[in-house]
Amino acid sequence: MGYWGPNLARNFDALPDADLRWVVDASEEQLDRVRTRFPGARMTTSLDEALADAAVEAAVIATPVPTHPALALRCLAAGKHVFVEKPLAVSTADASEVVAAARDAGRTLMVGHLLEYHPGLNQLKELADSGELGQIHYIYGNRLNLGKLRADENALWSLGAHDVSVVLRLAAEEPVECSAAGQSYMREGVEDVVFCFLRFESGLVAHLHLSWLDPHKERRFTVVGAKKMATFDDMQPERKLTVYDKGFDQDFQNYGEYIARSGDVWSPRVPNDEPLRIECRHFLDCVREGTEPRSGGESGLRVVRVLEELQRSLDEQSSRPSGRAPSAV
Amino acid sequence: MGYWGPNLARNFDALPDADLRWVVDASEEQLDRVRTRFPGARMTTSLDEALADAAVEAAVIATPVPTHPALALRCLAAGKHVFVEKPLAVSTADASEVVAAARDAGRTLMVGHLLEYHPGLNQLKELADSGELGQIHYIYGNRLNLGKLRADENALWSLGAHDVSVVLRLAAEEPVECSAAGQSYMREGVEDVVFCFLRFESGLVAHLHLSWLDPHKERRFTVVGAKKMATFDDMQPERKLTVYDKGFDQDFQNYGEYIARSGDVWSPRVPNDEPLRIECRHFLDCVREGTEPRSGGESGLRVVRVLEELQRSLDEQSSRPSGRAPSAV
Amino acid sequence: MGYWGPNLARNFDALPDADLRWVVDASEEQLDRVRTRFPGARMTTSLDEALADAAVEAAVIATPVPTHPALALRCLAAGKHVFVEKPLAVSTADASEVVAAARDAGRTLMVGHLLEYHPGLNQLKELADSGELGQIHYIYGNRLNLGKLRADENALWSLGAHDVSVVLRLAAEEPVECSAAGQSYMREGVEDVVFCFLRFESGLVAHLHLSWLDPHKERRFTVVGAKKMATFDDMQPERKLTVYDKGFDQDFQNYGEYIARSGDVWSPRVPNDEPLRIECRHFLDCVREGTEPRSGGESGLRVVRVLEELQRSLDEQSSRPSGRAPSAV
Amino acid sequence: MGYWGPNLARNFDALPDADLRWVVDASEEQLDRVRTRFPGARMTTSLDEALADAAVEAAVIATPVPTHPALALRCLAAGKHVFVEKPLAVSTADASEVVAAARDAGRTLMVGHLLEYHPGLNQLKELADSGELGQIHYIYGNRLNLGKLRADENALWSLGAHDVSVVLRLAAEEPVECSAAGQSYMREGVEDVVFCFLRFESGLVAHLHLSWLDPHKERRFTVVGAKKMATFDDMQPERKLTVYDKGFDQDFQNYGEYIARSGDVWSPRVPNDEPLRIECRHFLDCVREGTEPRSGGESGLRVVRVLEELQRSLDEQSSRPSGRAPSAV
Fold first, then answer.
1. Does A35 touch chain C (CB under 8 A)?
2. By the 8 A CB rule, do C143 and C162 touch?
3. What is the pLDDT of residues A48-66, one digit of tens each?
């Protein structure tokens, strides 16, 4: 019941086919803070007490990331379906174990990759899949702000979990090359700014610029296709999604030459539905129908694998003794 | 006398203490196109003819980049001062040779790194040097548009020469690590989009996002300092330079915690003077007074060294057989 | 307890030195909707029942505008201090009666002109008063959106009540000329778009552009002074207040000529404090200390007087038989 | 050959089927300034000398506005076709005389209302005529900047001539009501800021906000239709024309209620063709084919009529002794 937990509790509570029966937190104090907001739920500091309730079908986990795997395994072991906040874990090994446990238990496992439930990003995904943009050349994300410093997560894990999930969903393939570079300024060893580069088998390339130490506030994806280009810009109150009829056309008069085309610009309406509500409802639907969530365990595992790979690259760069200097003349 | 040459000719011609005596181009046709615009100048296809004119004190070179070193050496050998367009050369070896020749000849050598003469970037440099921003943590540049495809230069050399010169000037040190990643979509081996990462001894980091295949048009530098942040945005008709009183302050009530500070935003007036005119005048001043230009030979050499190093990284980055450097014209 | 009432109730309830004792609404249904949100308050459909409670010191009125005067008079007659939503009334006569009643009863009367409590507009007021802008030449407001159509209030009364209160506060004088023009498209006699022009004795001029039938969303005041200019833009997440060092300077070389000056642009930090909370606290402070509120009865009466005058002009403007004032509910 | 004349001369000179034979200016000095730019033309201070040249078919007039009618009449009397800069005259009487003279002489008369030749405004006009916006409710224009003060023209005539021509073209009817209000700050009697309101028989309304004393730079028309809305924004480098699928729909569940619709936003490509070149070519085409120009004499006369009417309203307001004060209570 820290910052994000009450949002999940409130949303699940508001859904007609869900009943918020328990709120679990290690701290009595935290429970007291939310007691009046969820009058229908019982409060406890004992997860076991809640898991023992046979009427509980599903658990929602919004705790510090390193605790995700162990908590998820306990819930699955108790026969509950599990919704766990993003990212699923801080290592591929842990994430795989949870995925396997869910599969063995025949229970639904979903990771809270919220952006995958944003109506605007879904339209972008449909647009890309429809072929209207042509082959996707590259994608880049800018997630910048003057944000909350975190002691336990760097900008890659805190901000990049969003972007990696979106890039993987748009790419529909896994990268063959992951590299990252960054720097920590405010706390040693916790990168405030990280740049990531992903290369995919198909030739697709993705780049992420992540920072919580920036004068601008940007939350944007740009997709450059062979035919058209598109932007999802979450800071725009309207026009969250914009399609640009831009690119290069063959110049038929001069073989091998290209002419820049800068045509119509189009922002289709994006429904105002709250992504968090859509996400919560999707989890309930998947539980009821036994279908794999859009951001199910396997999908969440792929995100962790890429984050881990990027972190490895980040670690390598900083352990390099001197970097490579341009050769002196 | 291609795209850029006439701009230089026009500007030097307009300066009161310069006389445009010769226009040299390999093509008679090109000379014909500009003949009426420079009625006071003689036109020739023979560089030697112009260099033989003892009244000529300085030569201005605006030719394809790979031809810069040989032409500059011929002009210096004839005892002329030399202004050469950016970048100075496509290899550190060639650039060094020109620099050495200028030193030996006691002649002024200046490279046309135009942005170093932009009033707004000079204000940014002064701001950074004044300490008002605090220690500079990192700098990033965005140079994006739907631009002119080039067959002989990739986005790194074509666009990045601008940004590298600015970053080196702001940093006032040379990077100890240079890495780049990119991809070519329109022409094999000619990268349309390139991301560069530079790390400096002092801890300063710089990142460049370069692309001529983008729906947005951006020409922007962001400087993040320990105390304040600043942006130079050349696409803004006003407010080219903006200073943000933003950053994190120590929380004195919670040791080790930080509080985000988001204070005044301030855009000092930037004079409207045309950078090209300032640049041309600066060359004349340096020639007359025998002073080292702001973007003199040594400075131009440092830019080439970094570009070469970035190109090497770009070539290494994948198993592609033929990451092509612009020298391969 | 319609749209706005619960916001007031919640804010007053949250203030440490206020106790929300009663919620009064004519409809039991409406009371039921908010019952759980205000567990400490008693619900009633009888205003008299609440007024009979001697422990009640003040009443907060957020009902349809035409009902404001009668309700305020009843509360004042019962000896309560009164906060009433803007505008105070739909006629100067009614508004005057309430002001007189409050004066006679020795009770505090405050009108909810929310924008007068916006930290950014207060900074703008201080800036104007400090003389930094020079003499104020003119002010204009743009309040545009695609908004909620109202059957009982036109754009002048619904939107313009905000702007008139701000203009009068900045002007610190009353207009000598009020004219308005507009048109109704969606409902006959209810103007969707209204333009207002005010002229003041001092030469100050003000213009308002009000519309709920517009593709843009604007909430902006521009103040043009003899020395500098300033904008308050409530749609900006940052930089709500911006000061432009712009204007015309005497050309001392050509007598009678002027040179445009376009200097620094500066956005001082505006605190994030919620205007509604500040407004509620201000009412409590005024009640406790017996001081005149910033938007007290006299001030609210001046707003009604101008709105009434503008409505008269709107009615006269054409030969339409039925320019309808909002009083005709 | 002041500020604008050379632009016209250069454009006509560049057209393949026009020959610039004479440049006429009362000042030898001015002629000297442009002599080298138009080597094919003869320079004279005598209009009669140029008019006597039988090879001259058409005259282009770009002089102070009050001189337009007399000069146009002289050219027409000499049998020349006439292009005259906007506005045609400063009085309806004068403008009518020129129109009549052109008709009697059987010569083409065109007024340089440049915006009517802007590709983006033509697309807006086609869009409006196509019915896609539904019935046009209202139009408003914002023409603001920190501009050049003029001693001889107020903001209405200097800026508003543009807007009135556009509004009349979009409206395709003449207004039945014209009112204006404004104020002069920099020079007595020369309004720096003017607000205009036009009402048309059909119910269409138009508003203009004109100022050369403003911190913002705006050149924008907004058209609000019953079905959709559109904006022409000349300050946008791209997206000059934008169509908003916005408006109110009948709520079929609640009779008499409306629901706001905020749908797709679409910016069709606007060709980059220079309006001035299109305008010049159009004049030549009309001369050759004997067709009435888009901004022919009659059209220019209608603009003058509206400007004159607005000026009358502006004069009335300032001659009113005290304005009308809100009645004191």
1. no
2. yes
3. 999 999 999 999 999 999 9
In the structure encoding, which two tokens stand for residue A190, read together?
Answer: 């916790």
Q: Please indicate if any CB of chain D lies within 8 Å of the CB of C266.
A: no
Q: Which residue among A181, A215, A224 places its CB closest to the CB of B244? A: A215
**pLDDT score at B3:** 81
Residue A131 Cα, gap to closest chain B Cα (Å): 17
Chain B nearest-CA distance from C228, in A, is 14
CA distance B204 to chain A (A): 9
Q: Band of the pLDDT at D254, cuts 50, 70, 90?
A: confident
What value does the mean pLDDT take over residues D243-267?
89
The answer to whether D123 touches D191, Cβ cutoff 8 Å, is no
Query: Out of C92, C149, C246, whose CB is closest to D258?
Result: C149
Contact by Cβ (8 Å): A233, A144 = no
Among A241, A208, A205, which Cα is nearest to A118's?
A241
Is B266 within 8 Å of C263 when comparing Cβ atoms? no
Chain C interface includes D236 (CB < 8 A): no
Q: Please give the full DSSP string across C161-207, using - where no structure is assigned.
A: HHHHHHHHHHH-S-EEEEEEEEE-SSBTTB-SEEEEEEEETTS-EEE
Contact B195, B87 (CB under 8 A): no
Helices (H), B131-224: 155-171
DSSP single-letter state for residue D282:
H
3-state secondary structure B93-128: HHHHHHHHHHHHHCCCEEEECHHHHCHHHHHHHHHH
What does the block give as tokens for A17?
């086919």
Query: What percentage of chain C carries pLDDT values higher than 90?
Result: 85
Q: Where are the alpha helices (DSSP H) in D62-154?
A: 68-77, 92-105, 119-130
Q: Do B215 and A224 touch (CB under 8 A)?
A: yes
Query: B267, C269: Cβ pair inside 8 Å?
Result: no
C-chain CB neighbours of B269 within 8 Å are 245, 262-264
CA distance C220 to chain D (A): 12
Q: What is the pLDDT of residues C50-59, one digit of tens each?
A: 999 999 999 9
A263 touches chain D (CB under 8 A): yes
Instruction: Enter the tokens of residue C164.
Output: 């008139």
Strands (DSSP E) contained in chain C are 22-24, 42-44, 58-61, 81-85, 109-112, 136-146, 175-183, 193-200, 205-211, 213-225, 229-233, 241-250, 258-267
Q: Which residues of C touch A237 (CB under 8 A)?
A: 217
Higher-scoring residue by pLDDT: D202, C319? D202
CB pairs under 8 A between C and D: 138
Taking the C-alpha atoms of residue B33 and residue B55, their distance in angstroms, rounded to an integer, is 25
pLDDT at D320: 55
**Does the global pTM surpass 0.90?**
yes
**Nearest-angstrom CA–CA distance, A267 and A238:** 9
Q: List, for residues A189-209, the tens digit of each pLDDT value.
A: 999 999 999 999 999 999 999
Closest to D221 measured CA to CA, from D171, D261, D173, D260? D171
Is the pLDDT assigned to residue B242 strictly greater than 70?
Answer: yes
**Other Cβ atoms closer than 10 A to A136:** 23
CA of C165 vs chain B CAs: smallest distance (Å): 27
Give the count of Cβ contacts less than 8 A between chain B and C: 27
How far is it, in rounded angstroms, from Cα A153 to Cα A90?
10
Average pLDDT, stretch C158-173? 97
Q: What is the pLDDT of residue B252?
A: 78
- Do B310 and B179 meet the contact criterion of CB atoms below 8 Å apart? yes
Q: Please tell me if residue D266 touches chain C, with a CB cutoff of 8 Å.
A: no
Chain D: list its partners (3+ Cβ pairs within 8 Å): A, C
Any chain D CB within 8 A of the CB of C96? yes
Say yes or no: A262 contacts chain D, CB-CB below 8 A.
yes
**Ordered DSSP codes for C302-324:** HHHHHHHHHHHHHHHSSS-TT--
ipTM exceeding 0.85? yes
